[in-house]
Amino acid sequence: MLLIISHSMTIIKVIESYLKSSFPHIVFDIVYNDTEAFKKLQENRTYELIISDWDYEYVDGHKLLVKVRQDKMTASVPFIIITQRRDRESIMVCLNASVTEYIMKPVENHVLEQKLKPYLEKVRAKAPEDSKKQQAPITTLKIPPCPAVVTELYSELKKPKPSLTKMIEQIKKDVSVAALLIKLANSPVYASGKVDSVERALNILGLNAFSSMVLSVALQGSLREAGIVSEKFWKHSLACATICGYIARKQAPQYVDSSYLIGLFHDCAIPLFLKKFGDYEDIADLSMSGAIEVIEQEEQRYNSNHADIGSLIVKTWGIGDKYFKVIRNHHSIGIDIAHGTPNYEEVRSLWAILTLAEHICLSYGYSGTAPVQTDESFASIHEKVLADLHVDLLDIKDFKEDAYNVLESISYDL
Length: 414
Prior knowledge:
By secondary structure, the chain is mainly alpha-helical. Helix content is 58%, strand content 6%. The chain has 2 domains: 2-134, Response regulator (Rossmann fold, 3-Layer(aba) Sandwich); 156-408, Hypothetical protein af1432, CATH 1.10.3210.10. It has helices spanning 9-22, 34-43, 61-70, 88-96, 109-115, 117-120, 137-140, 148-157, 164-172, 175-185, 198-205, 207-226, 231-251, 256-265, 270-276, 281-287, 294-302, 306-317, 321-328, 344-363, 375-381, 383-389, 393-408; strands spanning 2-5, 28-31, 49-54, 79-83, 101-104. Helix 4 links the parallel strand 4 (79-83) and strand 5. It is globular and about 65 Å long. The relative contact order is 0.09.
């Protein structure tokens, strides 16, 4: 059995394509970070080969290699690292840790043939009943491509003097995007008054909020094409986005736009899971609740989870690592981000705002079917949320009380 660790869709697809064409009998697992990889190795002692990325943020292949070699049960398992690190120091630390092979990026088929084949030939075939979890959704789910309207908008925004007229014209070309943009611009979180045109949306919201709104609209359209956007999912997403924006206005007004966006699409992979897996509806409500345990359930069933896939959608679109990190951790009781990381304060704030918004929305029936926590219980479990937002239990109760009228004022039509 083979374990593949990478957060690069390109690397995963290249390796999987090679395996399917040359070694179709081999069963493999895919995980997207070194923490999950180590957990897998503790749970499953039957891996005969490990292929690990070594990037600069998500997969520390060297650290994982050291742990594997220190464990008597895995010390002799062949370990192959894929990386773009070409400096002598990086190569030497891996050699000193007994790396089996060291593959430079970009990864190409002829390199895989040369470096992997000798080890893959020794991996035993498994009985059919052992391969139920072979397919990982990252390669079987249809990850929606970045829509042209977003690509064109961000291309214009990168110019020294972006043309507002050109941006408006680009958006007007897509009637459905323009219509939904106007609708979302009338959200109570922006208190923008009557918005009845794309031009007014831009003038009222400002360029940053307007850009975030276009991104939100485009992603919703892409999800409709690639997955199943149910009324329940849309209601949950819109409610959560509105409460995220409301909390941000109170505690972190500089992050209102990004808070609304993260609230609207933190669960963006759920429609893809609903379309791909016939039994996903059984746990979809739990997935929308913010429940921590749902990630483990998804891993057991599908060998991945909607938080990881959602973060990969954001990464594929190239809209910013701050959203990637929050989406990936939105079912966690904390977010692991080092001081000095770009957007450190914003990432922590967005994660805390989203976690609190999920609690409030769940209390009012907008976020799945998990048991509703009391405010006291939430405050006890999520001390980091209170610390990051500089709030206490009384503030949470006040937010919750005010949120009722905010939620009732939203139009939830699809």
